[in-house]
Amino acid sequence: MNNSKILNIVQQVATSLDIKLHEKENTTAALRFEAKVRGINVSLYFSNQTSNKNKVQAYFYVGTGRRYYEPDFYKKITFNDTKAENAIFRDLVQRLEMDKINEKVDSILKYRADKEIENDRKNAELAAFQRFIPFENTNYRGCFSGRKNGTYFELSQDKEQLHINTRNKDILIRICAAAAQILEEEATKAAKA
């Protein structure tokens, strides 16, 4: 692998795409560059193929590299480093899709913003329940649990199921009576609407 040629081409790519790629690794068999674009990790990696010394594999990553966490982008190509510099430049920009870096970054940022809105909504829902019962995330079966005056409450992660355990049957009867009254009021409201 011709490291000096690839270093020169990477500088041209970085300049044309307005990315500040920093060299992280430089050995005879590998070159690695990293950058941050609007807070998102970007990585460009080159390595020699063992079977053919002129063949170079190029890898381009945008994101964390942990696909289960958030969307990211990964592309790999192989090229011959005996090609002209402008041909390798074109390979990196077009075949590796480095020219679409802003689209990839935008999709990750949109995902993060949507995730933050969803987390804020979930936290607001939990806070509404916590006004009455001190629910905490137990990480046990994905539920929230709380105790109040000897009664144990378990709220499902989606906040659609509530389990109540108490030894005082009178409390359970009163909770059922209050629930029945609330359900009757809601049914009356729905009938009027």
General description of the model:
The protein is of the alpha+beta class and 193 residues long. The chain contains 4 helices and 9 strands. The chain has helices spanning 3-17, 85-95, 101-130, 169-192; strands at residues 22-26, 30-37, 40-48, 55-62, 73-80, 136-137, 144-148, 151-155, 162-165. A 5-stranded antiparallel beta sheet has the order 1-2-3-4-5. A 4-stranded antiparallel beta sheet has the order 6-7-8-9, with no helix packed on it. Strand 6 and strand 7 (144-148) form a beta hairpin. Helix 1 crosses helix 2. It is elongated. The model has no long low-confidence stretch (mean pLDDT 89).
Strand percent estimate: 25-35%
Tell me the total number of β-strands.
9
The secondary structure category is alpha+beta
Mean pLDDT: 89
What is the helix content?
Answer: 40-55%
Tally of DSSP helical segments: 4
Secondary-structure element order, as H and E? Answer: HEEEEEHHEEEEH
Q: Which term fits the overall shape?
A: elongated
Q: Specify the biggest β-sheet.
A: 5 strands, antiparallel
Topology:
Blueprint: H1 3-17, E1 22-26, E2 30-37, E3 40-48, E4 55-62, E5 73-80, H2 85-95, H3 101-130, E6 136-137, E7 144-148, E8 151-155, E9 162-165, H4 169-192
Antiparallel strand pairs: 1-2, 2-3, 3-4, 4-5, 6-7, 7-8, 8-9
Q: What does this entry show, briefly?
A:
By secondary structure, the protein is an alpha+beta fold. The protein has helices at 3-17, 85-95, 101-130, 169-192; strands spanning 22-26, 30-37, 40-48, 55-62, 73-80, 136-137, 144-148, 151-155, 162-165. The strands form two sheets. It has a five-stranded antiparallel beta sheet.
